[in-house]
Structure to design on (102 residues):
């Protein structure tokens, strides 16, 4: 149980380290937390702890820069929040990680 709690804490720290106007990927957050292959764990933490921990869920995208959420399930909100921070999001829902990634 201790290792799970520690990995959750490390993922939360990595998520909170993504500054406004920048994005990261689920994979890169997992790597920053020392969990190669832990992208799904990042997704679970975002799903279950975003409100409680105040996590910047909308700054996290797929490794190829695409928004993971489907239309009607938060995708539009994520695009709006990213654009409000100055992040360019293409019409297809992709962010240029070379430009905005951390």
């Amino acid at each position: 149980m201790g290792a799970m709690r520690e990995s959750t804490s490390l993922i939360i720290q990595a998520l909170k380290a993504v500054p406004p106007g920048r994005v990261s990927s689920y994979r890169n957050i997992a790597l920053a937390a020392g969990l190669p292959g832990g992208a799904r764990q990042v997704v679970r933490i975002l799903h279950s702890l975003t409100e409680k921990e105040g996590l910047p869920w909308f700054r996290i995208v797929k490794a190829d820069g695409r928004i993971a959420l489907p239309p009607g399930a938060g995708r539009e909100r994520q695009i709006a929040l990213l654009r409000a921070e100055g992040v360019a999001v293409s019409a297809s829902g992709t962010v240029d990680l070379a430009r905005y990634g951390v």
The two ends are 30 Å apart (CA to CA).
